[in-house]
Amino acid sequence: MQVHFTLKASVQLSAIISPDFEDIIRKAAEEANNVIFRKGVPSGIDDSEIGRITGITVKENYIEITIESGTYTRVHDALFRFRKYLAQILGKYRVGVRGIEVHSYDITATLDSGVPVPNLSKLPFVKSARNDENKLIISLSLSASDLENKVPDRILRLIEEKAEASQYGGKGEHWDLIFESEQKNRSKKENPTDEMLAKGWIKHGLSRGQWIYGPEAVRLFRAFERLVMEKIIGPLGFTEMIFPKLVPWEVWMKSGHAKGVYPEIYYVSVPKTRDPLFWEEVSDYFKVTGEVPVDLIRDKIDGPIGGLCYAQCPSFWPFLQGETLTNDCLPAKIFDRSGTSHRYESGGIHGIERVDEFHRIEILWLGTPEETVAIAESLHEAYKKVFIEIMELDWRCARVTPWFMAQEGLLGDVKETGTGCCSSIGTTDYEAFLPYNETWLEFQNVSINGDKYPKGFNVKIQSGSECWSGCSGIGLERWTAAFLAQKGLDMAGWPELIKEYAGREKSVFKFC
Ligand code: ATP
Ligand code: ZN
Ligand code: MG
Hey, whose CA ends up nearest to atom 29 of ligand 1? Predict the structure, then answer.
């Protein structure tokens, strides 16, 4: 993508200056163009790419200035460098340099062919955005402090991210198989959700994508949980914590989820007041009509203040926020299994494998990059053993580009620190074969998140080493769906240890 910036601004002076100064100021602009704006620019960069003053007029007590640039010493950087230099020069004549007024700020971005033109008209700071074929012309309305806060850089980054996202086109494209188990009997079987429903193991909850799990289903959840505890979490030395399940915006701002999670959140709002009188009309309405007056409630609540747990681990990080960790407590290994996760999933009928309310054990670790990678690899080995030797699954795993990299445009940033399956920033998805529809289901993942969380929550290591973290989400619905899809509901077909952990089939309710 090619970019061209044009900035018009005026620099206020503390006094009216005589026309003699014009020459001094022009010379300063030349010096800026030839020397000051070139500082830090790699050699060999075309002149047109580097910030330069293309127009300058002195008027009584201010200077009108036009700056153009490509991506090096962008116009706003150039403006501040020039102001600083000007202050030095005019200072000698006891003329001070005051504020900056921005008259116009235009960006022309030439998108690569095939990249769709993003719609930017609703963005803050955007006065107008139009396109001439693949040329995107954006006029921004900015103050000097917006320039200091690097708003134009962020807008440009956003355009680049949209262009990258459109080229990247979804998770499936960055999928590299790392391991595939021995293929098991794939003869057609029933959909386990239908079977469980028929047998009364589960029933629909009244909310979207929600199930009520009966005792027969829960004993499998608990069997898997025990398996994870005894064969993975315990031996690898992870310790239990409890992470909050209501996530305020501040957490998602720091974790990066605020960049894109909106279509999938369950939003949380709070009452404007706890005063029963304020709410009386709502209660009365229900008592009289038998309906809950949702519109009336909407007027009486504040927020949303955030959402329900989506990814489980972000809520942990405020525990470490702003801290420096001693070397000897690292690598730190913890997990949480204290509550549900909620996602507004795509509509349509799904089984227990894609629900809006699900149960997940989230494993989390942090340390130096080397430690983080080593733990990911040992987890991978432990999972592999469990899936092959204990659960006897038909499964595979693959490296995928994680959603946050796609969304944050970090694709160019991947750093290799080892040679194994989980050797760099990224995600490994574990998928099980579903004989009933001959598709693969992601039932868990292992992710190395690099410094994303430690950086977002300002967590440091005493030694000064870079701090990395990783996480792994074990979806109990997904494990159950995958296991039952392959082994059936009849315990006779289950591997020995699962039978033992699940215990005998217990039912509490009988329906007439
Ligand atoms: P998918 O692509 O299948 O929607 P995902 O990439 O959104 O999965 P992650 O964000 O990686 O999943 O979540 C980690 C784990 O959480 C998944 O491997 C899965 O076990 C579980 N999980 C995620 N979404 C759901 C859901 N809607 N229902 C049940 N489990 C889920
Ligand atoms: Zn996580
Ligand atoms: Mg998903």
Answer: 354
Ligand nearest to the CA of 310: 1
Domain boundaries, given as residue ranges, for the chain:
2-167, 171-246+310-502
pLDDT at residue 494 greater than cutoff 50: yes
Distance 471 CA to ligand 2 centre (A): 5
Active site residue 345: yes
Contacts of 46 by beta carbon, 8 Å cutoff, 6+ apart: 70
Give Rg (Cα) of the chain: 30
3-state class (DSSP) for residue 185 = coil
Topology of domain 171-246+310-502 in CATH is: BirA Bifunctional Protein; domain 2 (3.30.930)
**Token pair for 501:** 């952990």
pLDDT at position 268 over 50 = yes
Model confidence at 417, in pLDDT bands (50, 70, 90)? very low
Kind of pairing between the strands at 301-308 and 211-213: unpaired
Identify whether 445 is a catalytic site residue.
Answer: yes
Give the separation between CA 468 and CA 417, rounded to whole angstroms. 12
Give the residue whose CA is nearest to atom 25 of ligand 1.
354
**pLDDT tier for residue 51 given thresholds of 50, 70 and 90:** very high
- Residue 304, classed as helix, strand or coil, is strand
Residue among 215, 193, 221 at smallest CA distance from 506: 215
CATH 3.10.129.10 is right for the domain spanning 2-167: no
Asked whether this chain's domains 2-167 and 171-246+310-502 adopt the same fold, the reply is: no
Buried b (16+ CB within 10 A) or exposed e, 291-329: eebeeeeeeeeeeeebbbbbbbbbbbbeebeeeebeeee
- Residue 404 confidence (pLDDT): 44
**Pocket (CB within 6 angstroms of ligand 1):** 343, 345, 354-355, 358, 360, 442-445, 473, 475, 477-478
Cα–ligand 3 centroid distance for 372 (angstroms): 25
pTM of the model: 0.88
* Confidence class for position 163, pLDDT limits 50, 70, 90: confident
Which residue in the list 83, 219, 343, 396 is annotated as catalytic?
343
Share of the chain above pLDDT 90, in %: 82
